[in-house]
Description:
Blueprint (H helix, E strand, L loop, with lengths): L13 H12 L4 E5 L4 E7 L4 H11 L7 E6 L2 H12 L13 H8 L10 H18 L6 H10 L3 H4 L8 H9 L6 H6 L5 H9 L6 H11 L7 H13 L19
Parallel strand pairs: 2-3
Antiparallel strand pairs: 1-2
Amino acid sequence: MLDRDGTPAPAGHPHVLAALVARETGAEVEAVHDPDTGRWTLEWTDGETVEGVERAVRAAGPEAARGLHYRRRLSEGTVALGAVRLATSTDGSGPRPPVDAAAVEAFWRDVRLPSPLTEREALLVYGLIYQVHDDHRRNEVEPEQICYVVRQAGLATILLRRPEALTPAELLTARYAGSHGHPAWRYCLVPMDDARLVRAVHADPTATADHLKAALTLTAALPDTPEAVTSRLRARLRHSGCGGQNRPGAVGGNSGPA
């Protein structure tokens, strides 16, 4: 690699180190110079951890890392995924997990990226980023703006845009969480207890066929459900013109309060 004057840069030059680290880690590493402080910083997005890049630099030469600084930026997708995983890391029995830019940074500190997404996480990440871009009328947003939506609006509104992705318990929780005092659903996607959901449908004269199917799906894993309740749910489902039980899994359709 050539220096600014056209001469070969020494092996310990930050630009050379950035190229070496990029080859070893697969990240696009850039050496950035601050003319005011004279400080050199290796910067990259996602990919290897700071510790991993520091290790690669030290391997290039004992003196190479002296005075060098490091900065791993997080892409919007990685920030959104971290916020989703933090928010959903609770069972709803305690306080909501903190979701802010600092918490997301700490969450990924020792994790190499990109981290694999499940289909459900991909849906939430896409919906979250779309929401934040739309809210701010911008194609690029700050990490804290992404976290703010998770903290203030919650994840349920994003998931409910794709009702086919809801499990039977989630479909019913979306209907009954508000009236049953269950905010963990709105913010953290923690569904209500299955038995409680079955009782809610049983007591709800306006439950639709989809809700009745979802409740019957849950009763299959609840052996203590009174037979009178199960029979009544089946009878109501037949009366609605949709006889039979719904198979376990995602249930389409949604109504009622979130």
